[in-house]
Please model this.
Amino acid sequence: MEKKQPVCCEKFKTSIGGQALIEGIMMRGPEKDAIVVRQADGTLNVDIRPRKIPPKKSILNWPFIRGVRTFFDSQVTGVKALMHSADLSPEESQEPQSKFDQWLEKKLGNEKFQQFVIGFAVFLGLAMSIGLFILLPVVVAGFFDRWIPNQLLLNLVEGVLRICIFVGYMVLVSRMKEMKRVFAYHGAEHKTIRCYEAGLPLTVENVRQMTRLHPRCGTSFLLVVVIISTLVFAMASSLLLTAIPALASMQGTFLYRLIMVAFKLLLLPVVVAITYEINRWTGRHDNWFTRAIAAPGMWMQKFTTNEPDDSMMEVGIEAVKAVLPEKEGEDAW
Model:
């Protein structure tokens, strides 16, 4: 049975965070990123890359703007790290390059081809997420508009559908055989950070006793995005109909649904920005209110993390050590 680390043992909160990869972990520190992958021969491949961080006074660090910037930066960095770990995976597990990919790489050159693949992967990931968690609930909820004329109530129904789809998707993915080891590395990432925040030496023995759940996790962030989007869409849609009364008369038509979908897509950066600021604030405080906000995300992590073995924890330890700042405390949250 998992031994959970008491809250009182957390000496400080670090800004270091990571992502599970194929047989590896990426950690992001205040100054650099580290990608640590367990290779087929058992050795660890450690790739350390400097981070491109905007100056402190840059507009990109302003509240709300920084959330959107951080989100897209993490998407691109995550895809790059995932591709790197895939390249280091055993050859028998790698899919052969298609003729189209070979042709495209020949036309663009290796560097531009890699940039294209990364850009396309980020676009595809965002498109799938938007389609599954934004458009699908809007389309399904649209069938109820003839019985629910109240736009606020209709948006709440849409929000419930969105949450159900998100939770169902995560539960189904967690049951996939191919994802079990990835989620175990996700658990190793959390346990290692927990050990570091507890001020204990980074050893397998110390990491093993930590909980695999962490309040500042990407899963928690996504769940809060889903919840915040429900509230923002509901309020913004009501304000839009109040500002443009003619639009309300179109309710139930295809054009009306198309306009509402486009309107909600435009609101996505606002949702991400608000969610980032909420996560940032809750991550810096520890009280009943912030624990209540973090509770749904912590519950979701029971599906998106598994208990790691010792070799996975070793990967997590190396990844954290690789991104520790030269000056103690510079990684404080």
About this structure: Strands lie at 17-21, 24-28, 32-38, 44-50.
